[in-house]
Amino acid sequence: MKKSWGLLLKILSGKKTAESRWFKTKHVPWNQVRVGDTLWFKNTGEPVTIKARVSRVVQFEGLNTKKINQILSQYGKSDLGLSDPTPPEVEAYFENKRYCILVFFDSVQAVKPFNITKKGFGAMAAWICVDDIQKIKLPLQTP
Question: Model's pTM, two decimal places?
Answer without folding.
Answer: 0.88
